[in-house]
Amino acid sequence: MSWHARIREGAISLLALAALCSILFAADFRVREQATRAVAAASPSSVAHNGAELSASASKVLSNVREQAMQHLPMTVFLTTAGVLLLFMLKT
């Protein structure tokens, strides 16, 4: 793969991530509030506090994902398999 293709793929990935973040920011008021607080607070103590809060939120999300995955195991297996197959299709 040439470096032009790698740069293009990287740019597409960053664009997709930016679009996802923009959609979340526009659609969910909780994400909007968290992002606004994180950007507004620039002192080192608030950055550390926001980091700890982000870590706690991420652990809550992961535990909820695990719980939901166990409740919907057949669909989770199907989507995981579909995702792996999609990655292999995109690679070739």
What overall geometry do the principal axes of the alpha carbons give?
extended
Average pLDDT rating = 82
Count the E strands. Answer: 0
First and last CA, distance: 11 Å
Following the backbone from N to C, one meets helices and strands in this order, namely HHHH
Task: Return the structural class.
Answer: mainly alpha
Q: Beta-sheet strand percentage?
A: under 5%
Largest sheet: none
Give unreliable regions as ranges.
Answer: none
Helix content: over 70%
User: Count of helical segments?
Assistant: 4
Nearest-angstrom radius of gyration? 18 Å
Can you put this structure into words, describing what you see?
This protein has 92 residues and is an all-alpha fold. It has helices at residues 3-27, 29-40, 44-71, 73-91. It has a domain at 1-40. It starts with a helix and ends with a helix. The longest helix is centred in the middle third of the chain and has 28 residues, at 44-71. Helix 1 (3-27) packs across helix 2. The relative contact order is 0.04. The protein contains four helices and no strands.
What does the secondary structure layout of this molecule look like, with pairings?
Elements: H1 3-27, H2 29-40, H3 44-71, H4 73-91
